[in-house]
From TrEMBL:
The keyword Manganese does not apply. One of its GO terms (biological process) is cell-matrix adhesion. Residues 497-564 are annotated as: Disordered. The lineage of its organism: Eukaryota, Metazoa, Chordata, Craniata, Vertebrata. It comes from Eulacestoma nigropectus. Belongs to the mesothelin family. This is MSLNL protein. PANTHER family: MESOTHELIN-LIKE PROTEIN, STEREOCILIN RELATED. It is found in: Membrane. GO terms for cellular component: cell surface; membrane. It comes from the Eukaryota. InterPro entries: Mesothelin, Stereocilin-rel. Keywords: Cell adhesion, Glycoprotein, Membrane, Signal.
Length: 564
C-alpha cells in the first residue's frame, strides 16, 4: 500500500519519466498510461526485475502490467521472440502454459525468475525438457552440474523427469542439499526441503526393496547431520527417543523426508504419552506440522512465546485448519493476540477465527500488526476488523493521506458514511482499483458519482477497465447516465436515462358528454350549404341532461376543411 501511494504521488508530480532512478518494486505500481511509448521497453525491462509477489496473482494491477508490456513489445500470439523475452523478464511467469512450448528453449531463462509455476506451467516445462531439445540435453544424460545449472527449475521437475536422472546423480544432489541446508535462510530452506523430498521419493520408487532393508545400525553414533541420509527403517531402528529429544533443535533443522519425519514424530509421542510439555512444544519445529487438529486441541499453549515459536516460518507451512485449531486453543486458555502475533498469523488465517475470537483482538494490536490481507474474511469479520482499525488509527484522521494508507487494507468493512468522509476530505487519496472493488457492495451502492470520482482520483480511468465487474455494473445502473457522462467522463454506460422530452396533456379529464360539447369546432364563416352551417352553429346546452336528439347533433364531428 505504501509503494502504491508513493507511485501515485510521483505520477501526480509528473516524475514518472525518470523511472531509471526508481527501484523496480516501485515501477510495478505505475499505470501503463504513465509510461511513454518511446521508453516503454526500458521501463518494463526494469519493472520485470521487481518482486511480482507484491501484486496478487490475477489482480487487475498485475494483469494490466503484463498487458501493457505485451502491447509495448508488439507480442502477437503465444510465441515470444528472444528479444521480447529479454524485456519481459519475470512477467513471463503470468503467461499461459502454451507460451512455453511455443517459445521453445529460449524461455527457460525467464522461467528461472518465477517464484512459482502453476501446475499446468510445470507440466509444459517438463514436456519441453523431456524432448531433449534444450541446452541441458536428455534427462538421462544429466549430471550434478546439470541439476545445479537448472537452478529453480529443478523445483518444477516431476517424477517422470526425475526417474530418468541416473540414481548416482540423484544421490549426489541429495547430499549437496543436506550439506548446504543448515547455512540457508528460511525461504531457501523451504525450497531445498521440497527438492530433497522429491529426490528421496524418486529414489524410493526406483528401489522399493532397498527401502525395506534395515541391515543393522551404523557403527558410528547417529548425529543430526547424518539423519537425512538414513533410510526410514534405519532411523526407526537406530535412533532412540532420548537421543532425539536431547538434540531436537539440531535434528529438525535438517532436510528430512516425509517418511522419516513421521518416524521422529512417533518417537516424540512415545516419550511423552501423557502429552507434550509446553517447553517441548517450542522445540518441535517442522515436526509440529505433522500433528492433527485433534492432537493440537490437547496442547498446552498458554504463552505468546510458545505460540510465536510454533507459528515461526522456520518450521515450514501450516495447514489453515491446523492454525485455526492452534489459535483457538491459545485463546481458549486465556491468551491474547498482539501485533507481532497477528503478523505471524497473517490476514488470511486471521479470517478463519470465529467472530467472537476476532472481537477479542485489541485495537492496539491491529495498529502494530502492519498490513494484513483480510480480503478472504466474511463481511461481518471485515466490519469487525475495520472498526478496530478505525479506532487504532483515529489519531491520523486529521491527515487523510497517511490515514488512508494505514486503514486501506480494512476498507472492505467500512460503512458508506466513512467512505464519504474520505471522499470529501479535501485531499486526493487516489484509491487503487483493487481496494475499490473490495468495498462492501451494499455500501458502495450508497456512494454518489462525485463520491466515487473523489475516492479514485488519479485512478478514475481504471474504472472504465472494470466496467464489467458485477460491483461496478450494479452501481452504474442506479446512477444518472447524464451525471456519469458529465462528472466522470470516462465512457461508462448503463446508467439511468432521463426523459427525452416533456409530456403534454391532450385533453382535460371531464365527463364524456361535456367533452363532446366542448370539442365541437366552430368554423369561422365558412361558405357552406345551409344544412351544414346549421349543424355547426347549434348552441352548447347549459345543462348536462340534454335530449338525445340534441346530443346527437352536438357530438357529430365537423371537419376542419368543409366542402364548398
Amino acid at each position: 500500500a505504501q509503494l502504491s501511494c508513493l507511485a501515485l504521488l510521483l505520477a501526480a508530480k509528473n516524475l514518472t519519466a525518470d523511472f531509471g532512478s526508481f527501484p523496480p518494486d516501485l515501477l510495478l505500481f505505475f499505470h501503463p498510461s504513465e509510461v511513454r511509448a518511446g521508453t516503454c521497453r526500458e521501463f518494463y525491462a526494469r519493472a520485470s526485475r521487481g518482486n511480482l509477489d507484491l501484486l496478487p496473482r490475477g489482480s487487475p494491477r498485475r494483469t494490466r502490467l503484463l498487458r501493457g508490456a505485451l502491447t509495448c513489445l508488439g507480442a502477437r500470439g503465444s510465441r515470444l521472440e528472444p528479444q521480447q523475452l529479454g524485456s519481459l523478464g519475470a512477467l513471463v511467469c503470468d503467461l499461459e502454459p502454451g507460451t512455453i512450448p511455443a517459445s521453445g528453449p529460449a524461455i527457460l531463462e525467464n522461467l528461472k525468475l518465477c517464484p512459482a509455476l502453476t501446475r499446468a506451467q510445470q507440466d509444459a516445462l517438463n514436456a519441453l525438457l523431456l524432448t531433449g531439445d534444450t541446452a541441458y540435453g536428455d534427462p538421462s544424460s544429466w549430471d550434478l552440474r546439470t541439476l545445479q545449472d537448472l537452478g529453480p527449475l529443478v523445483l518444477a521437475l516431476n517424477q517422470s523427469t526425475l526417474s530418468l536422472v541416473p540414481e548416482a546423480v540423484r544421490e549426489d544432489f541429495r547430499r549437496s542439499i543436506a550439506a548446504a541446508y543448515s547455512s540457508q535462510g528460511h525461504s531457501q530452506r523451504e525450497k531445498s526441503l521440497i527438492l530433497f523430498r522429491a529426490f528421496a521419493a524418486a529414489s524410493a520408487a526406483s528401489h522399493p526393496r532397498l527401502r525395506r532393508s534395515a541391515d543393522g545400525c551404523p557403527s558410528k553414533p547417529i548425529t543430526a547431520d547424518s539423519i537425512p541420509l538414513l533410510t526410514p527403517e534405519k532411523l526407526d531402528l537406530c535412533l532412540s527417543s532420548d537421543a532425539l529429544i536431547k538434540n531436537l533443535e539440531a535434528v529438525v533443522e535438517q532436510p528430512i523426508s516425509i517418511e522419516s519425519s513421521q518416524i521422529l514424530k512417533k518417537k516424540v509421542d512415545q516419550l511423552f504419552p501423557s502429552g507434550i510439555p509446553e517447553e517441548q512444544l517450542k522445540r518441535l519445529g517442522m515436526l509440529s506440522r505433522l500433528y492433527t487438529e485433534q492432537e493440537i486441541s490437547q496442547w498446552s499453549v498458554t504463552s505468546s512465546d510458545t505460540l510465536s515459536a510454533l507459528l515461526s516460518t522456520s518450521g515450514g507451512r501450516w495447514e489453515d485448519s491446523q492454525v485455526q485449531q492452534l489459535l483457538s486453543r491459545y485463546l481458549d486458555l486465556g491468551g491474547s493476540l498482539t501485533g507481532p502475533l497477528l503478523r505471524e498469523i497473517g490476514g488470511e488465517r486471521l479470517c478463519n477465527l470465529r467472530e467472537e475470537q476476532i472481537q477479542q483482538i485489541p485495537a492496539e494490536a491491529i495498529g502494530t500488526a502492519g498490513q494484513l490481507n483480510i480480503s478472504l474474511c466474511s463481511q461481518t469479520k471485515k466490519e469487525q476488523l475495520y472498526g478496530k482499525a478505525r479506532e487504532a488509527f483515529a489519531s491520523l484522521a486529521s491527515t487523510p493521506g497517511p490515514y488512508y494508507c494505514r486503514i486501506q487494507p480494512y476498507l472492505g468493512g467500512a460503512p458508506a458514511e466513512d467512505l464519504k468522509d474520505l471522499a470529501n476530505a479535501g485531499v486526493a487519496i487516489n484509491m487503487d482499483l483493487d481496494t475499490f472493488l473490495a468495498l462492501n457492495p451494499k455500501e458502495l451502492q450508497k456512494l454518489s458519482v462525485t463520491d466515487v470520482k473523489n475516492l479514485l482520483g488519479e485512478n478514475l480511468p481504471e474504472l472504465k477497465e472494470a466496467e464489467n465487474e458485477p460491483l461496478v455494473v450494479s452501481w452504474v445502473k442506479i446512477q444518472s447516465q447524464r451525471e456519469l457522462d458529465c462528472v466522470l467522463g470516462i465512457g461508462l454506460q448503463g446508467g439511468l436515462q432521463e426523459p427525452t422530452g416533456t409530456a403534454t396533456s391532450a385533453r382535460p379529464t371531464t365527463p364524456a358528454s361535456a367533452t363532446s360539447t366542448a370539442t365541437v369546432p366552430t368554423p369561422a364563416r365558412p361558405t357552406t350549404p345551409a344544412s351544414i352551417t346549421s349543424m355547426a352553429t347549434v348552441p352548447t346546452p347549459a345543462r348536462p341532461t340534454t335530449p338525445a336528439s340534441v346530443t346527437s347533433m352536438v357530438t357529430t364531428p365537423v371537419p376542419t376543411t368543409l366542402p364548398t
